[in-house]
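Schema walk-through. Below, the input block comes first and the output block second. Nothing else is stored per chain. Lengths vary across the set, and this one has 324 residues.
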Amino acid sequence: MRSQMHAYCCHSRASVLAGLPESLTIWYSRPARTLALLVTVACLLIGCEKRTVKSQVAAAYEVVSKSGVAMIYLPGGEFTMGSDQGSADEAPMHKVRLSPFLIDRSEVTQEMFAKVQLPNPSRWGNLRKPVERIRWRDAKLYCNERSLLEGLKPCYNEKTPDLDCDYAASGYRLPTEAEWEYAARAGTETPYDFGPPDKLRQYAWFADNADQQTHAVGQKTANRWGLQDMYGNVSEWCEDVYDSAYYKVSPLADPLGPPNTGKDVKRVMRGGNWKSSADMCRVTVRQAQRTGNTDACFYTDYCGFRCVRRVTTEELEQLQRPAK
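--- output ---
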């Protein structure tokens, strides 16, 4: 009975209250309105979380960029970021509201990296594998080169020591920490969007199944929004400076992380990798990683990334959807 009422109330709130055409509003009698009101109250008591997740999944869809990269369009929205059940730096849980954006379907591969004619730093050479051993600064240089390849305005100022980001520019950049978690959660509020951790092998390359190396992208099941390898393979650079207490002061709308306080500060890295435990693959886990910008050699072979960019409605309409 409870499941029937759940299905009925979720349908009714969408169709009865909001879905009637104007020509039927006269027919929509007082008894019908009263019934709809009662259904809405029941829906609020029972909850329509399943409908919310499904509607968000439907709103996310794949496009192909001008340079041929598969990306996922994510609608803007509000979600609860962080966890009160994990490490101290994952707390407190707090609301975040994000603008819509595009995000790479997979981690940047060595093939994608070669397309902009940058030297490949990876330990495991394979065009289908993700780029790794990538410095934070070099990941940003790739973003600029890819922007120029598509005729977009680069986000990063290469004349500044940390390649300062112009978030208003049309080009590619690293995701903010909030954008990354929003994408990984895919409309859910659990540590993994697919459910219990015993299913992780289906979704990620991590310590239990990776054989101590990276693997070609896209071999594991994608999350609900179609994003691949969010839980494993390589961890991913974010734009933000790392601050263990930042969640206590994070703004609601489009948080950009704390200000840069000095030379070569630690930056946020998100997502599990080929050497991570299952617990380290949770969507709320935060890592603080030195950028490697000042290191002559950077041998951190689990550091990768993917790109995001803001997009206008007009631009979105012009982007090609993949053939089915």
